[in-house]
Write a structure and sequence with these properties.
195 residues, alpha/beta, two-stranded antiparallel ribbon, 7 strands, globular
């Protein structure tokens, strides 16, 4: 079984990185082969240089590697902070470049881009772990929880991933060591149940 883990946070000491480490450890213990990527450390270029309809191949070997590992993944895990109710720009660029036509989704023969696409991903389960300084209740009541819609519907459901779970840990600023330890245990439990 293959797992793809991707983190987008500029600080290696972030809680996002801590969650990725716990998730990878949990998956390896269950026999998964893990492809783990730190988008900032890799210098992932988030700028899509061609129109969406032309985005079927890239001359960037890192993009091609991510696309290959996305296609081969049985389980996809994403880790990032909530910035302005969105993922960091580098993560949005990763979606743009890697969840591409012919890799993550396609169209039936003879149909144009106005048709409803079908999902092509092998993975049937995805997990997204976010950090925020906004409480989950306020995120839902004031902002409508746009990250849930982005990941569940706009990305994973469209690309054929039928099972999705997202956990947000907040407020992360000022959280105690005990609170973070408890959150990491929740990450471990969530990943173990998905594996």
């Amino acid at each position: 079984m293959n797992a793809l883990l991707v983190v987008a946070h500029p600080s290696k000491t972030s809680f996002s990185h801590a969650m990725l480490a716990v998730a990878a450890e949990t998956l390896v213990a269950r026999g998964y082969a893990c492809a783990a990527h730190d988008l900032y450390a890799e210098g992932f270029n988030p700028v899509q240089p061609v129109p969406e309809a032309s985005n079927t191949v890239s001359d960037d070997p890192l993009v091609e590697r991510h696309c290959r590992e996305l296609r081969e993944a049985d389980l996809i895990l994403v880790f990032h902070p909530n910035w302005w109710s969105q993922p960091p720009a580098i993560m949005k660029g990763w979606i743009d470049r890697v969840f591409r036509l012919g890799t993550a989704y396609g169209y039936s023969e003879g149909e144009g881009f106005e048709a409803v696409p079908f999902g092509m991903l092998r993975a049937k389960h995805a997990l997204v772990f976010n950090t925020s300084n906004t409480s989950p209740a306020r995120e839902a009541s004031v902002f409508g929880d746009p990250l849930e819609t982005l990941w569940r519907t706009s990305v994973f459901a469209l690309c054929g991933v039928t099972s999705f779970e997202r956990r947000m840990f907040a407020p992360v600023a000022g959280s105690s060591a005990e609170q973070r330890h408890s959150w990491l245990n929740q990450v471990r439990f969530t990943v173990a149940n998905a594996a």
